[in-house]
Amino acid sequence: DIVMTQSPDSLAVSLGERATINCKSSQSVLHTSNNKNYLAWYQQKPGQPPKLLIYWASTRKSGVPDRFTGSGSGTDFTLTISSLQAEDVAVYYCQQYYSIPLTFGGGTKVEIK
Amino acid sequence: EGQLLESGGGLVQPGDSLRISCAAAGFSFRTYAMSWARQAPGEGLEWVSGISASGGATYYTDSVKGRFTITRDNSKNTLYLQMNGLRAEDTAVYYCAKGDGATVTNFRWFDPWGPGTLVTVSS
Question: What pLDDT is attached to residue A34?
């Protein structure tokens, strides 16, 4: 199984400041056949199901604000919120879809400082 | 994008069985693989099971193999999860989610997710 490890577990950022979330996979999720990283990011607000933000490690889903950016390749990935807004308070998860079982990171809680 | 709505959760005793359902609308249900994922109270997300678009291939996480069965009825646009031999550690909100491909091995990302149904296993 591919283990996904996120860091930090939580972070507090001032409004308008940058938030950076890291995700590391126990093995590469880069498919050499198509040069794509099989990684997605989700946002989950309290009492709600997760929502897809980014797939293929860096492709923003339609409608997702451009302050959310995914980057990285192979085993190391980052989700950056360039200018934190109040509505971005949530838990963020990474997920690999390179192999079954599909696995998620443990989550990173983002709060306002 | 479509909509998903789970139902059938509730309070059961250890060892009991329960079937939860997920009604799909707004997309071609028979074209996409589907999955169940769960979230224990205060915990993270865990993929539980997936089924191909045709229903011919199913996959499970190790902790539920032999106890849970995923099925789908494409004529009713509905996904099911039959859970037998329930344990306290199965207590969670169960979400259904649509994949981006037709097979579980090509499931890719979960989008959309239903609002979830709570299953509580307790004596």
Answer: 93
